[in-house]
Write a structure and sequence with these properties.
The chain is about 45% helix and about 25% strand. The chain is α+β, with helices and mostly antiparallel strands.
């Protein structure tokens, strides 16, 4: 019986992620510049009779714009940078083969300054009881058909599909 290896990571992922990082960074910069322009406009339009109101508008615009820029930088850009580092580590790391029956759990883990992952339980494998699967790669992993997984640093990088009787 022939087994089919399915790679979850490829070298093409890194340029795609870097492009995504540039888009998020550009969005944050553009939003920051627009926020600054709106604040300057409020200052230019301010007159002595409405200075308190324009000050309030300027404070509101800078607060909202600042939070949007901070949120983009913290959540979007930083997440993509962590995904790039994770992908590079998995592509460059040493692979270990793990044979067994795989069960995808709903246990989701988020490591601080790391990527989110899902636990995959392994039955029938010596020394290995569970592996991790990058959350964004969850839809690519078919636990029902997997008979062997290739892991790097505890993360599933690829797996072999086979029939149920091939596990015995």
């Amino acid at each position: 019986m022939e087994r089919h290896v399915i790679e979850l990571y490829s070298a093409d992922d890194i340029p795609r992620l870097k492009k995504k990082e540039r888009r998020y960074t550009a969005a944050a910069v553009i939003f920051g510049v627009l926020t600054f322009a709106v604040c300057v406009l409020f200052c230019i339009l301010s007159r002595t009779y409405d200075q308190k109101r324009m000050l309030l508008y300027t404070i509101c615009a800078s607060t909202i714009g600042g939070w949007v820029v901070i949120s983009l930088a913290h959540f979007a850009v930083a997440e993509v940078r962590r995904a790039i580092a994770h992908t590079k580590a998995v592509l460059e790391g040493e692979r270990n083969a793990v044979d067994g029956k795989f069960t995808l759990t709903n246990e989701r883990l988020l490591v601080k300054r790391g990527v989110s992952m899902v636990r995959v339980n392994v039955a029938g494998a010596p020394r290995v009881t569970s592996l991790q699967l990058y959350d964004k790669k969850r839809s690519l992993f078919n636990a029902a058909k997997a008979v062997r997984a290739y892991s790097v640093h505890g993360f599933i990088a690829a797996y072999e599909e086979g029939e149920e009787d091939a596990r015995n």
